[in-house]
Queue: 3 jobs
Job 1
Amino acid sequence: MSSRTLPLLFINLGGEMLYILDQRLRAQNIPADKAKKVMNDIITTMFNKKFLEELFKPQELYSKKALRTVFDRLAHASIMRLNQASMDKLYDLMTMAFKYQVLLCPRPKDILLVSFNHMDAIKDFVKETPSILSQVDETYKQLIEMYTPLSSGEFQLIRQTLLIFFQDMHIRVSIFLKDKVQNSNGRFVLPTSGPVPHGTQIPGLIRMFSCSGEEVKKLQFRNGGNYTSALREGSFEMFGERVIKLGTNMYSVSRPVETHLSGTSKNSAQQKSVNTTPNPLAKEELNMLARLMGGLEVQKTSSVDNGFRVNLFATDEEEEEALISRPDEFSYDVINIQATKLSGGCTEQARY
Amino acid sequence: MMYHKEKSIQIKSSASALYNNLSVLRIAPRNLTYFSVVHANMVNMVSASWDGLNYSHRQLQSKEPNVTTSSSLIMQAAWCVLPYREILVLTSQKGIQMYESDGSIMVYWHALDTPETPTAQAVFARGIAAVRDKYICVGISSGSVLVFDVPSKGSNITLSEVLEEHKESITDMASECSGSLECIADLVSADDSGNLSVWKSGEDFQLLNKIPGFDMSCSSVKLWKGTVVAGYGTGQIRLYEAITGIIHAEINAHARWIYSLDIAPFSGLVRSAFTCSLPFQIVHMYNECVTDTQICGAKFCDGDGYAFAVTGYDLSEIIRYTQA
């Protein structure tokens, strides 16, 4: 569908990843200098010029499998290591958070404001490192250049493309459950109250006009919701108040991150029906991925002593248990590829 | 007027968040109703008997012939009712497929010009309407409208004309649904900037009028007794006289983007849910809220508006309501 979806998907998922890692690094009392190195290394890799060039090219969305491979690589761009169970959980949280943000956005265009919220936070993480800061600023400019001219319909197409990517994902996240934004069946709560989106009128009015365009009658009706006037519009520039809160950091040291895998048989059947369609062009996707990852320079761990492991669970035992008990339908098969330069143009293919 | 919820119809996979993602075909001689709902690269079809006892399912994939790539995403599926036959039309990123109404046989395939490498402008077909006796019209992301000439039987379907009026992607199209032969306008097409074009069908389709948008996508449109009913991304519904473009009414109907609207042609009920009659009276009839669901398809199941059905993103069921 929209060939402009991948940069937004990547940046927002990356932003969520950084929020979660930042919280875990602090919760595990990782020394400040090491924690900072991890965050800096990941961010500089994320905003690598060559990588972004590939990312911003018009292209269809990658499959879930391919995208997970990119984030695996990104998460290991520094001295931090994650076991598979923790990486799985990290990816679950990232994807459910962004799915929530996309669904709850008042207008499709507001997905850009959500992206700016993530960018603003990332900028704050690296504010003391000018070289990385300039990479982040460069990315703002690319986002503004590509997305601010788009029409409402084109943003809706991006939104629809993202929603197909997230379709049938109903992993329960304890922070969402606690805040009552997600139900126990994994579906998000959609409010029927609050401010209407910018540009929308509060429902309830019918105006009728004569042939000369004069208003001749006005009627009110009850629309079943409880809406208020729109808030002012957020800023689509490099700086400014975004107004929308979606995409800001919801984690803190005191709010631990847990997931429950809601594996009803219906969900698993649906996931299977999408994922098991044979894809004869997997090879082409691998080529594209290799090209993309060629820009992702992964740090070689120079000293074994410097490296450390981060756990997304409360204990090592929990992490081990999570790996063993993760239902098959929720496993992310990660692609192992060499990031060598491959020739050939890209052809269209479907990736789900 | 009150509606109550009936037992939902389960479908094999969930509905995707696409405009007008529900099509209904009533087959009175066999006491059956067909429903179709798009899920990514597949269409879920259900045939439901009116006594509620029998359901049969079929899934269609958008497999384009002569192409070895895997299937593309489907934008819309809709039944087109012509005097002698009903055709199921699927529009996707690769092209347009037409099937016999039960989805059993593909009778026609039209490929879109897809570039070698993806371009910034997406390529897809969207917006489907059956017009008068023998035309099926389909919109394209470039803004073009393809007019297909459909014989009363067989697969000798031909592309008869390409209408180049819109500059933005077509979102939806609708033909005059009242059955009245007096109406001059046969077809209305809508696009992503909210512009509407009104057409008269024939060997050469004639542009009767252009109704300008207001920089907001018109995602769903209907044509009834010469009146265009249009739903916009702002949640507003507007009613225009098709031939003149004179605005009859404006309704602040919803707090979110309208994904679908429908008219019951015999009664003038508009699902979203207003009734209109001529001379213009608009009366709000009914509200319903489907909890925690982003609705993507809404259709009356019969010409009087006695029953309607909706689909929602991520939901694997068709929710139904009938008049109490």
Job 2
Amino acid sequence: MQFSSRRKKYNTNSQTELYLHPLQFYGQPPLENISLSEFEAFAVDRLKLLKTIENLGVSYVKLSEQYTKKLESESKALNFLYRPDADDRKSSGPTEYEKRRKDHISHFILRLAYCQTEDLRRWFIQQEVDLFRYRFNELHPKQKLEFLHRNNLQYDTISVEEKKALQDKLVNSSYAVSGITVEDQDFYKVPFQDALDLVRTRKVYLKAGYVFIPHQDIVTIVLNDFRTRLSKALALTARSLPAVHSDERLQPLLNHLSHAYVGQDYSIQKNVGKISLEQIDSLSGKSFPLCMRQLHQSLRENHHLRHGGRMQYGLFLKGIGLSLEQALQFWRSEFIRGKVDADKFDKAYAYSIRHMFGKEGKRTDYTPYSCMKVILSNPPSQGDHHGCPFRHSEPELLKQKLQFYKVSPSGISQILELVKGMHYQLACQKYFELTHNMEDASFSLNHPNQYFIESQKVLGGGKDLKREMDIPQRSQENSATRGPSAAPEAAANASQELAEVTEELDSFFQDA
Amino acid sequence: MSSSNYDSACLPDLLPLYYRRLFPFSQYYRWLNYGGVQKNYFQNREFSFTLKDDIYVRYQSFSTQTELEKEMQKMNPYKIDIGAIYSHRPNQHNTVKSGTFQALEKELVFDIDMTDYDDVRSCCSAADICCKCWTLMTIAIHILDRALREDFGFQHLLWVYSGRRGVHCWVCDEAARKLSVAARSAVAEYLSLVKGGEETLKKVVLTDPIHPFIRESLAVVERYFPRYALQEQDILGRKESVDKVLALMPEDILFTICSGAKKKTLGQYFEKEIMLQYCYPRLDVNVSKGVNHLLKSPFSVHPKTGRISVPMDLKELETFDPFAVPTISQICEELDRPRTEEEKSEDTKEKENEKDAAERRKIRDYKRTSLAKYVKYFDQFLEKMARSWKGELLKKSDLQKDF
């Protein structure tokens, strides 16, 4: 065994050297041949890792204990490096060297998939920066220093005399810097352009264009550097894309990878017609997220919803499986009870419903709004009922509403705490847990239709729904349920998963 | 000499005279060319003009100083704005492949506008200013100038009176011109202490530790506060303004004061916070952020007041009087004054050497007006910068080995 690995080392010397270190800047692309299946498998695994990072980042404070624990277990499950000073002889399974190689290669493959548009690039950079932050944080101080020097972040340290002279200023510039910090730690002199976040928030001492950073804070600098380098690299990669795309083996895979980032968008209607209009009232109480429950209630009470509400709720209903005919009937019957007569409805409102289903105008099939979209765009004004109640309602009103919906007082205060911390999706998740009598929702909420599907699953109606979901959705679920009790199932799931992944990718190749 | 003679209706007559005989084109070009260190720097710079009847034209650019002069004399713009240096000549931007025409560099700029202080000044409001509230500008300039030089290390700062109710700062260092959007916004945020709109009562909140930048700024504010706020603005003189001040104080302090008890440590910085809220500079971050942002050019005329946007010599900051800044009608009038004997004899001497005559006549022209001292100061500013260009050019020619 040892002989063959030594032979490997002779072939790719610098790369081998690279893999001796737990963390890298991805400055050099891998220079070896790999099989197509390794190409696919590596890329898909890294994508899963990045999606986990995205979800964890929404649900937990970055680098908090829960965050790091979950990220560590996911990295382990996907065979990515997670131990900065792992000893190869002890572990079974892939060696640390192999994991680092996989990390290196998979990063560069995803660059190809994610360099094409501004959105893709932004997403990829964000997740890679978060991943890097986590890994850098796990390094020992000595390894951090080593990393800095190896990567040409040759920021100078200031002399002991200068430190003493600046001591007061340094201490007064940052909450985290005490007299002891100044005495014990090295301070680096960094050009202010490399430490914008610290400058912007005035958390650092600035003199003649340089900021003075204690060793403990050097990570911010490193992250900025990583971000900048990656951003430049992606721009360059985009230019060489035509050459890559001309390889027919790669193009379909790369396309698949970049579309997967969008995640489940509930645009493809499944279970069309499985829900009858009579069920909606009861479903709204049981399985609708608060925003949709609120919209439904307003609609029933006022027999009307304004445009923002019609879009948000109408698309949601489409997502849960209402057909166009059902939707028309639903809105029409409600509006007629109000001030709108049948004629006016057919002339004005019916058009916009057909539009939602892609049957008018440029025939775009509009996708139901994700939580991000509901929270961040088009805030409601007077007379509107759309938006995210956790984000847009006054806390008092929200409290009343939750009381009205019979949420327990302790549950309400938990929710209000989360709202105060601006964790709107977590608040909604808590609402899910309380209304379904569960401890842990075991999914990361990012879409109202996801809420509906998960709720239906819990309430027992969802075997059909489960089978029809896409791969990314399934993998997210699996990783979330992979807790201590799920260990024996995990292995079986994993191989089943791999078979399914390959199956789906195969079909892609065939279609192409 | 009185500037009350200015009437905006006269602009169509005054502007041609201004651009033909008074506008300091050679200094202006010298500035924007930055010593020719970077190729096409001047040629790729965007200018925008506001012409008569509010016609606004963007993406103007010029190849040489002469072309700039000719165009301006032809168009007689009411207002001139300076934009960024682009990747291509702005006047050809339509011929460039979409997405490739980009703003690359520009001076770092700041705009301090008196209307942003309306909630804390009682003497004037909106576009009006007076000598009492002008102190706010003096304070702003002291604080920002110090911070930009000492904290950020910038050296070439041009402060300009906007012509009506504020001042602009142009940071011309090479490092400043190359700053990204993120960097500009970070600098502006670092310099911002007053936060909040109409709904926010308390706009300045200080917490431990007090950053050295805040300490330095407070030192300036404290120097001016007694005379400015307590005397001139008289913030404690009327019930209405006293109430405004009291609204900024923490409740427990009020209780403590009223009951005569000793001062508590909670809300310990409320005095400083109040002073800062009344005096600390308020800048518009959006002006500073954008690389492609267009800002009024120095030596542009303010159409409403007629005043020239003149560079300010900070050595004379304490005595700067915005109402003494020359108007276009004033300087045009000064041109028409009878020439002195000395000037007449120089005229005859010059007829012999026609080539430089026009140039020299023009120089003598502005020297005869109140514009002179401002152009002189601008010259000094350029001279200082020029020394850094020489260094750059030497470096470049060394690298290229052209001796």
Job 3
Amino acid sequence: MMSPTQWDLPPELCCRPMAFVALTGLDVTYNAIHRAIWDAFCANRRADRVPISFKVLPGDHEYPKCRTKRTSYEWYIPKGILKTGWMNKHLNLVPALVVLFYELDWDDPVWKEKQSECATKVEIVRTSLQGRNTKVAVVLIQKKTPLPPGEDLVASERAASLCNACDLSGKSLFVLPHTDHLVGYIIRLENAFYEHAQTYYYTEIRRVKSHKEFLNKTTHQLLFVRHQFKIAFFSELKQDTQNALKYYRTAYSLVHELRTHETNMLEIKTMAGFTNYKICRLCFQHNTPLDAIAQFRKHIDLCKKKIGSAELAFEHTAWMSKQFQSFGDLFDEAIKLGLTAIQTQNPGFYYQQAAYYAQERKQQAAHMCAHEVRYPTPDPLETLSGALDFYGQRAWRQGHQSIDPPDAEKEKVGIQALQVKEKDVPHSELIIALLSNAVAQFKKYKCPRMKSHLMVQMGEEYYHAKDYTKALKLLDYVMCDYRTERWWSLLTSILGTALRCSYLMAHVKDYITYSMELIGRASTLWEDQKSRIEKNLIKVLMNEVPEAEPDCDPASAKAAQALWSDRVSLAGSNRFTIEVQDYVPFGQFILLLQCKLHLYLKADCPHPVRFSKLCVSLSNQEYNQFCVVEESCKSQDILEPLSQENMCLVPGKTRKYSFKFVAKTEDVGKKIEITAVDLMLGTDNGRCVLLNWRGGGGDAASSHEAIQAARSFRSRGRVPEQHAQWDTVSIQASTMIISRVPKISVQLSHKPPALSNEMYCICVSIQSNEKTVAKDVKLTAGLKPGQDANLTQSTQVTLNGLEVCDESHPALLPDIAIGDLQPGEKVHPLLISDETVTIETVVPFDVAMKFVSTKFEHLERVYVDVPFLLMTDILSASPWPLHLVSSQLLLAPTMVALDEPQSQVEHVVLQTGECASECFSLQCPPVLNGTSSVASGQYLISWKRKSSCADAPVVTTVVTLSHVMVETIPLYVHAELPSFGRVRESLPVRYHIQNRTGLVQDVEMSVEPSDAFMFSGLKQVRLRILPGAEHEMLYNFYPLMAGYQNLPLLNISLLRFPTVSGQLLRRFLPSRIFVKPQGRQAEDASIAAA
Amino acid sequence: MAVCIAVIAKENYPLYIRSVPTQNELKFHYTVHTSLDVVEEKISAVGKAMADQRELYLGLLYPTEDYKVYGYVTNSKMFRKLHNSFTDVMCNPFYNPGDTIQSKAFDGMVSAMMVQAS
């Protein structure tokens, strides 16, 4: 912390005034009880306790003497406005109340003696306070708890006597029992003290006010101010802040009514400042910040022009700075106590303004105190007391209020002394402290640009203070803000300062960086300045000492020259890598296209630039060797570059470099990126600077420029081919390497749709059209992965065309090695060519089957040991002709064939929609219980596609036949009759009735008459059939009519099985017969009735 | 009369900036730049509260000690003139929006608005 200066506000002004109460008679060092009492008064005072400042003083303490009261002001001429000691006197020296502590119990054995001792002590205090209105109070410290008032007669009597002896009113005598409730008693005591103190300050205010009538406006102007100030101050001590504010305001306007001249200007400003401070402080305290701000503005407007002595103008700026600073402090303090500030009204502005005046002060000081003068002796600033009597006066003419200085010589020496003193003020330190205060505030109130601006100022101040490292740190920090905001004029100015800093520190790398940006296109410098900087830059590159920057302090520049010479002699550390991405030096663009790389370079500096190496780094470093341009140059070349040369950049012209390389196969599918572009300036043996652009180049300004260029009408038309228009090139920093589409043709020959279950044959022919041998050709064939799981499971692939696939074959054959493919050679299977074929699959045929009786009637169920027929229909659904090779019936054990079943569809070719049928005669052996469902077996069809090549494999499709219900019947009837009859010829019919039960059956049979037949035989009969036996009935029918004729109905009823109806049994019997008409031909061979 | 007039692009860089030549030009640039803090804040506040009511008048931006900085004001003649002239610049088919303004007519108009350097 800096020690307080002349301009700092006195602490007694800045504190909150509190009533001053002196405590005497307490021995806080040796007496524990007294110590406890003192602690209760002063330790841990909370905000809710009355505002009193306590002080322990000895009983015989000498209070400041009171001057004899003036009876008349007639001949009195005031020497100043406010005495420097006055505020402190009333805060800390003259108490409002003196309290005498005295240990005395009511029943003290030596009461009389103690009473008189107490009275003496009171008297001593009174004497010391002669002439003052200070109250005196006595507190008796007692060991016993007092009785309630009025009950202790001794106490009231002795209290009255004590009051009398000490000349005290009853209200000024207190009893402090030293018991457990000490703090409670103390709080009651201090409240009583507070009341006394308020009364005291009230009388003081009255006293000061009473002077007013004696004053006259001509000679006592200063007193008007003084008195108002004092009243206000006493009001504050009385905690009457509203009135205090009122009086301070009056005082403030009175100050400005004073006649001002050069000699009293400082005094007036000082008092105005004090009063203003008090007003603002109270306004903030009353939570009326706008009043505070308005008062401060008024104050500044009134005082801004009151400069005073021109030779001491720096005093005015110092004072102004302090005004702003202390207002900022007040504002900030109010914010900490809960006030809300806004972006456009926050303490930052006041600190900023304070800093501004501090800067002014510094300039004025530099200007006015430049002359070499020794500090005068004797010291004109020394006073007898070591301090001034009045605020704001000159030490060499204190109390003087005339317009002209009393002694011109003294005045001169005094001013000289002040000027010399001003020289030693650490101005930069003050400015930086204020600026950093402001920065903190603006940061809080969302003013990033203001913050940057202040940081620039701080950096510049550090530069002036010769702390270049700190300056550079700050400037570097804000530079990028200005760069991204594209405020080139501001950036240029900052860069200029930064360049000077780096020059003075001989920081080679920084120097080069700033130089390059300053000669680049973002800089707003004039060409001649750019040219000068570039020449310096070239010198640095040649390992020489650059010229000093203009505006540098000559002494510092000299020191810097020496530093540079040291740098030059140092051999090492001459290689620098500079990341230029974030600056705006040269421009550079890259276009990467199919492993052909174009690099465009443009220089914006005023002179041609010679570089020694240009290389591009790619993400795969193996390519880097192909992307280098290098040409060693002699240091002479740097100075005099030939613009025709390949390695020379001519200002404003675009140079294009092309690099080519072949992508490596392992990079297929990867992204190749340009990681960096390096440009080497200078030489390896001299100083060399590597400029490094990350990625595809460009810099802080180029992206915006590119956008602008894209919008511009200038980008269209007239592009000279060599110097390709800079604006039209856009950065492409990466490219994707993908594999080339192979020149291989793949042909698939097949005949869709495929038939399900079929061995579907696909012929793949692959032909390489590559110029070279295609190596390690592999083919993957099969079902495309990721399809329905059922499909994957039920599809098999094989390479062998003659083989029939089964479960063991996979759905996908990966990486079938084919070997090398010669150019033009035609090979079946291939390379990474992706071909997906969607094969439509259709069901080749439908197989339908049904069970029918021997009469071709549809059967719901079959009967045990009764023959029936199984009919199968194969209906072709295939678009291709189907060749049925054979068919086979595999019967389940529950079925037997009546004859050897032979395929009836062998070598049948079915066209689309055609149907092939087969018929098998079957019978079911007995089943265990009456009825059950039995399996029938499987039907195998061997087939192939008719069209496909002859050796195509035969596929066998298995059809599982449906289950059928088998039922046992008790009685079976079948007839034996010729296949046809002839009119009027006997037709013998034999009915066999079989008992299939283990019981004797009673059977009733009858034959119904019919119109078509006459017949002979038993018309109605009742018979018994033994278990398992068969009964035969013979009838002779005699047909009467030709054509299909219904046979006479045979009714059979079983007495034991009424459920078995004649109807059911009749099913087994033929119902009709064909009767031929009478003819003469002989009978031919019989035709099967079925 | 104005001592400095600036037209700022929406990306906050200056399209046009001109100040009276007698004074420290850089200082004005800084003043304009720092006042963008307030412009930004006001615009973003407007964006939140009332997106439709585009209030062009931003009023007094910064109460600096020496100068008053105003944001775009439409209801005074001075700024209307500036706006009209700016519109003319934008209507020029050869002007590329976003470029700095280099127009003699605009220059002349701005000069008329500024404190005349003696």
